[in-house]
Give the backbone structure.
Amino acid sequence: QKEVEQDPGPLSVPEGAIVSLNCTYSNSAFQYFMWYRQYSRKGPELLMYTYSSGNKEDGRFTAQVDKSSKYISLFIRDSQPSDSATYLCAMRAGGYQKVTFGTGTKLQVIP
Amino acid sequence: DVKVTQSSRYLVKRTGEKVFLECVQDMDHENMFWYRQDPGLGLRLIYFSYDVKMKEKGDIPEGYSVSREKKERFSLILESASTNQTSMYLCASSSIQGSQPQHFGDGTRLSIL
């Protein structure tokens, strides 16, 4: 079993929809949680960075962490065609720089 | 903004060649990382470095080595390239201050023929 599980998709939604992307994990030591967006032929770009449980909002993006369920989510409101990309979840334990990544979910927002 | 620059976007080499991939960051970050990214396997850590001349093996170091002679530069070396090293290679950096996340370059798509 992988430490981090992420549905690869692809996920296709109409423009303006609310998108929910999710990851589950097994290592209870993970404390820092990240979401990266990766466009085709580009490197991952940091979208959200959270510590421990709770919600964090940045514009149309909301990151949610539920440590009791070992489950993290990224919500995208009013999705746009420019949101079409692969979204990677990532996490690491405190005081340790090694990051474990999900394999990514490919999202397509259709105009 | 953090800037991580990888010297080549696309590279084609032959089996058996020694290949150098270069990465430079401009944020005075202590930590630097090399990953490879393959479909269905995600990002896998090859090597990382937390200081000049220091290096640590990641999950898949076999067939690779690294060099960090200056704080801003981290090089990945394929000692004798093989076809199974055809991949997307990503460099990242991070600061040790305040548990900051990693920032990535745009990657080098390497093909070994």
